[in-house]
Amino acid sequence: MAQPVAATKILLPETEMPTRWYNILADMPSPPDPPLHPGTGRPAGPQDLAGIFPMDLILQEVSGDRWVEIPEPVLDVYRLWRPTPLYRAHRLERDLGTPAHIYYKYEGTSPAGSHKPNTSVAQAYYNRKAGIRRLATETGAGQWGSALAFAARQFDLEIRVYMVKVSYDQKPYRRLMMETWGGEVVASPSQLTRSGRQVLERNPDSPGSLGIAISEAVEEAAGRPDTNYSLGSVLNHVLLHQTIIGQEARKQFALVGDYPDVVVGCCGGGSNFGGLAFPFLHERFTGNAPKAVRFVAVEPAACPTLTRGTYAYDFGDTAGFTPLLKMYTLGHTFIPPGIHAGGLRYHGVSPIVAKLVKDRHVEARAYGQVGVFESAVRFARTEGIIPAPEAAHAVKGAVEEALAAKREGTPRTILFGLSGHGHFDLTAYDQYLRGELQDYEYPAARVREALQALPVVPQA
Amino acid sequence: MAQPVAATKILLPETEMPTRWYNILADMPSPPDPPLHPGTGRPAGPQDLAGIFPMDLILQEVSGDRWVEIPEPVLDVYRLWRPTPLYRAHRLERDLGTPAHIYYKYEGTSPAGSHKPNTSVAQAYYNRKAGIRRLATETGAGQWGSALAFAARQFDLEIRVYMVKVSYDQKPYRRLMMETWGGEVVASPSQLTRSGRQVLERNPDSPGSLGIAISEAVEEAAGRPDTNYSLGSVLNHVLLHQTIIGQEARKQFALVGDYPDVVVGCCGGGSNFGGLAFPFLHERFTGNAPKAVRFVAVEPAACPTLTRGTYAYDFGDTAGFTPLLKMYTLGHTFIPPGIHAGGLRYHGVSPIVAKLVKDRHVEARAYGQVGVFESAVRFARTEGIIPAPEAAHAVKGAVEEALAAKREGTPRTILFGLSGHGHFDLTAYDQYLRGELQDYEYPAARVREALQALPVVPQA
């Protein structure tokens, strides 16, 4: 293999941007178990989702086709920031004194500052194509809501975002970003839905939760024919849309004649990890990988779905509205501790990623947030970019790989996904720098309790 | 000239990044008048600046060389984000219904989110090379301070940033960014300097001002042999470092076979405008421009230095520490109204830019901030990127050019500089969207008063 060149950024021209998404379901040696209808225990069909998703996305959810053409109007919006740069982290390598080559694929150049627009743009397009005029969604700290607000504007859709009230009050910047793009943002729980009103009746001062916000958005979408619901992770079609990340990275490695020994991504619902890793797993599954590559999904020790969860059928949401998904889960009633990486505070994970971990194609690791922020600050001070707390977990995973290479005195090529910038997360850095950031104990008792509340799967 | 291709982003590979800065002093048909020592009225010499600047920068300040080699360690840091993309604003063009081609050079991809690191990195390098261990500077809302904190970290310099107290309290995010990069941020006025203590004695609750913060930083640099001072605009060497912007844009236009009819930049101290425009002015001055290009500097109507100021010798700072600079000025004691574009709230302007306006090589226009934000929101909703309030002035200038082309039914190629993103300025957008943003009357009386306080130039 040729020596890597000394470039810092490896750029693809727009003409080299991938024009198809990659569907890993076509190549998995053993596919994941199907989602089940919670009432019947039978596999959930398109009719179970047709009230809130457009048919194109439902068909992508169950498609076995290896490649899915990206519609031209979606490519046209992607071109506003894609292809994204692949960086060689020369300065971080030097600072670590490692023989490893560290590369990172940076998704923070999108208008919303994360990888989320890769799917929000596609979802907005398919909804518009289906004649839908409005979208409803939920958001915690605002990453997903801002990505969908941006995308909705590109396709002249109205959008209402139910934003968890405590974030709505405490993190106004992402809300203002959504409003600047023309989105309507509502603090959840709200008076606009039955589920919101029920919560407020019991507790007028409720700070809200992602579970409540999902309930409000789904209720609105189910109740209005002009409105659909949009989800930012977990589902197969969402991960499908994210595979443009890894496909670009694959081409960029070819430009410099290198190839990763290990691919590292942070993992909450799994769309960032899958988007980066699946195109490299494709090469493994089809026997075309030039190396035995390891894949590492990094999660927070406070919400260790892959490393401590149970592989079982569970609801995707707290309220129990979704089909049952076979995945690693900490229990859908489990509420994770308040770590800063809000995007990784999820009790479950994509069924595809779960199956890949179960079958040992993918390793999982969990780190506490203090160590994660230590790595993130080291990264910011060498490479300049301040990572989002979620992305900081991948930084930590990559740093650990680089330090292992140093101990062993062997070269190693590391690719990690830097899924977003931390411009709206600087108070977390402030806490870390003041020594006030805490690691949470693994909440074993609460997980045990939540696992006892796993749904019983009806016999079909 | 060839037809432009349909690309959205025009990217330069790293190998095409310019390796020299362009010094317009070598080509100006009529050079600016020299800075004068305020005590003697004689041209200020290197010895007047040697206490707070390294000799390499002082020599660049007075150099007549057309090209200045960029040191390799500076190029090496530039590669973290340079070359920056040139965008064709297809979506904005469509939204405006204009026959114009609109291009923008986007500097918000730097770690600090603006063009400022082009000079902060160079200044940190030359100070380090001169054996300096610490830098002191001032910052208002934090753009310059964060750029210098990032650069200082790259060259292992300590840095103290005097941040205007009202911003320190109200805009914590840029402060946190500086601290994440390892900078020390002090609310100004502070107890650390004599000038700070004097202000606090008179008014313990002083909100601070840029003038006071400059005084504190200069006092510290003058009093400590290990510490120098750094300035983010106005001076010749600062504008020199920014010319990498326009040189890249020139190469990017060549890639698509187009050339601007008009170059638009926002103008406060002038470093962003100069950085973009000077390499194109070079082609005019040397007879190599393929067209008669117009150059438009856009400033706020509330601080209309170029359009309403007096061309005269004045101090560069409020306190009167600097040499006298020949420039357009509203008077160094003039305090501009509190518009959101903090980077454009400056009473003076670069002497080079001033001379170019005086000699009619550059046009100047002033816009009120309500119209500016209207254009910025239109830009954000079409192109995705949310502009910084300063950059939004250039957006407004470009939109006006595009609408003029539409009225006249003639094509026009517009290049404007999008000098930074607005991630830390979203409260300004909030005010605009709520209809609470106000335009300020031109403060004619206060300007008249300040102009009466212009310094008397001693007869040399």
Verbal overview:
Two copies of one chain form a homodimer. The first copy, chain A, is of the alpha/beta class. Chain A is built from 18 helices and 15 strands. Chain A has a domain at 10-16 and 71-113 and 237-443: Rossmann fold (3-Layer(aba) Sandwich). Chain A is 40% helix and 16% strand. In chain A, α1 crosses α10, α4 crosses α5 (143-154) and α15 (369-383) crosses α16 (389-408). The longest helix of chain A has 20 residues, at 389-408. Chain A binds chain B through residues 7-9, 11, 13-15, 76, 79-81, 87, 91, 109-111, 113, 150, 153-154, 172-173, 176-177, 179-182, 377, 380-381, 383-386, 423-424, 426-427, 429-430, 433, and chain B through 7-9, 11, 13-15, 76, 79-81, 87, 91, 109-111, 113, 150, 153-154, 172-173, 176-177, 179-182, 377, 380-381, 383-386, 423-424, 426-427, 429-430, 433.
Features:
homodimer; 460 residues; alpha/beta; Rossmann fold; seven-stranded mixed β-sheet; 15 strands; disordered N terminus
Question: How is the topology of this model organized?
Answer:
The structure is a homodimer of 460-residue chains.
Chain A: E1 9-10, E2 20-22, H1 55-62, E3 67-69, H2 72-78, E4 86-88, H3 90-96, E5 101-106, H4 117-129, E6 134-139, H5 143-154, E7 158-164, H6 165-170, H7 172-180, E8 184-188, H8 194-202, H9 210-223, E9 227-229, H10 236-242, H11 244-256, E10 262-266, H12 271-285, E11 294-300, H13 305-308, E12 310-315, E13 324-329, H14 351-358, E14 363-367, H15 369-383, H16 389-408, E15 413-418, H17 426-433, H18 444-452
Parallel strand pairs in A: 5-15, 6-7, 6-9, 7-8, 10-11, 10-15, 11-14
Antiparallel strand pairs in A: 1-4, 2-3, 4-5, 12-13
